[in-house]
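SEQUENCE-TO-STRUCTURE ENTRY
===========================

Backbone structure tokens: a row of integers, each naming the local backbone shape at its residue.

Task: work out the structure tokens from the sequence, keeping to the layout shown below.
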Amino acid sequence: MITIPKGFLPSQRTIPVALLAIAASLFGCSRETLEAPKSLITAPVVDGSAAVAPTFIESDGSQPPSGLVPIDIGGGATATVWPYTGESLNGVPSDPINLIFLGKADPVRIRAALLALSGDRTAFGLPDAPPFNSRWTDCQGNVQTTYADGPGWAGSVIQLQLGTYQPVRAHLRLFRTGLADGSGGVVTLGAAHFEVLIPGTTEHQVLSWEIAQQLVTVDLVRCGFLGAAPVMTGTINAAPSFRDIPDFIYNQLPPELIALTGGPPPPVSGAVPLASDGRAAVFQLAGEAPIVAGTATDAFSVQFNQVIPKPLCSDGPYDYVYVTGPVDFLRTSTVDETGRYEFQGRVSGKLQITPVDITTNPPTPVGQPFSANISDVQQGYLDAAGGQMVVARTKRIGPQTGGAELLTSDLKVASPGPESYRFMEQCLQQLP
């Protein structure tokens, strides 16, 4: 019988039982205030325009990120890892690594263990309400990277969620490092966060690192595969906070969510830091779930309907656009009898863009509407022999008078195989 240290698991005081069947109308954000989702195209230019030289960024993954830290992987051994995730190979932190799995810890097996659980967590003081009574599923999310000294870069082939893409969920990314731990097992890194969809956009706002870490801990205990009580690392990433919640989002959160995250009472002036103790929970897995072969498909649409800062080729801090239209999501995940996991994902949409003046209330149109096309494609695999690969391609096209404004990015992380990241942004300018 594994004894979990007191205070390690959430209590009713940590996650109140009174919460919270959060509905789709989670909170009513005004159109003039939300942050850019970084997924669209700039406003049109007038007749008489020319393309400026495009911006290129390219990396082959040969440069490790700064800030590597040693972690204890059992048996007196240590591994040196980057304690963050990133969105490319440039070493810019995105999320903290707050979960470390050792032993029988291949990501495909961790996925199988979590997917097999029911949604009943009431014995741990969690409410019988979404997302806390949900089951784990494969999910949509941006591909991210992390790094371990020796094997190098790894990508988030497996992404899981507790809840749904909207309105609120816990989101878990798993990274197969290729490292052996000190007991003959393997090292898998995880990054989990609790987040809410920003209404009228396709983007999420992280609300907590710690809540998601606690939810994963609860479910690893429920799986029955722990060989020892979880322990915490020392401080390996930013503390007492990492990133923040903009005040114009925080002030519109429902009281239940603010109470859940432990933040200050609204209204606030200025961003609210996202609390983080800078430590990762370490799990020694002595057992593993059986592989269940099959295919899962997740398909849905999100309606864009929001005023946002122009995310591409902006002319300054007051350059905003009003964006409307559906964005379609599709992801298919497959596991075969050998334990090979594959996925394919696609995000597509044709959006209507209208330049607006945000110095007026409400914002008023200042240009002709135009269309913009978005297209994201992802695919990847983890095989039973340790091979892995993930590819994420993004394209944004805004037809303009005199040409088109364009953003493309291409990320590939593979083992064995080379890593690469390419980014290109093409803007137009008005001729005199």
Summary: Residues 11-48 have pLDDT under 50 and may be disordered. The CA atoms of residues 376 and 394 lie 4 Å apart. Residues 62-285 form one domain.
